[in-house]
Amino acid sequence: MLHSQKLAQADDVVKTTKASVAMALKKAAPALGINGTTYHILDILIGLTRAEDWSVERRPLVAISNEKLAQYVARSTRTVVRSIRKLVEAGILAYHDSPTGRRFIHRGSDGEIERGFGLDFSPARQRVEELFKIGADFAAALAVVKEARRAITSCLRRLADMSALAQQEGLDFSELDQQSKVIANANMDPLQKAEALQMLCEVGLNLLAPDEQCEVSSATEMSGAGDMHGSSYNNTNPQDSEKSNQGPLKATECRRHPKAFEDNSLAHAKCEPIPAAHERSLNNLSISQLASALPETQSALGVSLQSWADLNNICEDLRLLIGLSPSGWQTAVTILGKPFAGAILAVTAEKVMRNSAGISRPAGYFRACVERAHTGELYLHRSIFGLVQSSSKQLN
């Protein structure tokens, strides 16, 4: 209270306006612990001051009795007294009562206060910049906590997906499941909880996909026959696609095609169904999971993948994007089926978009992935998990 009195008697009066101080007080009130009845009283008091009284030459006084305020806010007089004291202790008001305790204001013909006693808003006027900063810092802290809670929800969902995938793959995920439950139920600061769950997600990802990003050295060593060079990407020839639903991607049986890949082992590969283990992983790959792994590709093409039909619609654009020949694409479709081949094509394009220097020959990279898929050695769902995790880190 003494500090408030000192601010009210300051000689270097800060130039500001009633509206500016009112806005600063509204923003800073939650950080100062001003809420409920106290906030209601503050709103009434600042509303009763005159705008011209906030000029440098005047004093922003308000003269209203505690009894009248109690009627306005439907509370007892003792509650009003406690609320005003709280505003004084917060450095917003200063007591300027008369010797008898009465509050009144006498104004001259020009409206200026000639004699007045009451509650003085001079401390708030002196601290207007500080109050704005307090409000901004409080809002920023709230935003950080809100983002941390979103990250907690996202991590818990990712861990649940990883647990389901680990069960299908026959991996032991029980310890991570137990740790995630302990962290989720712990009474921790949201920031610490989000950080702990993000670290747990990284451990889970390493367990499921240890450097499994379809990175094969043969991708850069394969022949360039069938690759396209020097052709610019142009999104002007949308292709019709087969109708599809939004459900899990089903493995398609391999069929022969008269023209196989040139200069690689697929040219002489026997046409066999995709191995059952790989088929199970494809059955659990949804279009929503794939879409979440392809932010750069969707942004570049100006599309939003909502169904497998949407993916089929952009396959021709993706083929042009990575410089793959029509025969190379057709062979992949014949061997793997269009949905599976399209998913590999989309993942390849996304990796090229994110790091073009890391894949010197995108078309050869795609063909290597198709070859691994044909032999059952490609785990596309793990690559998708890796891309989703990478996107989440960049957002954070």
TrEMBL record:
Polar residues biased stretches: 231-247
Superkingdom: Bacteria
Coiled coil start-end: none
Sequence segments annotated as region (Disordered): 218-249
Stored Pfam families: RP-C, RP-C_C
Residues annotated as domain Plasmid replication protein C N-terminal: 1-164
Annotated keywords: Plasmid
Location of the Plasmid replication protein C C-terminal domain: 303-389
UniProt name for this protein: Replication protein C
Organism: Pseudovibrio brasiliensis
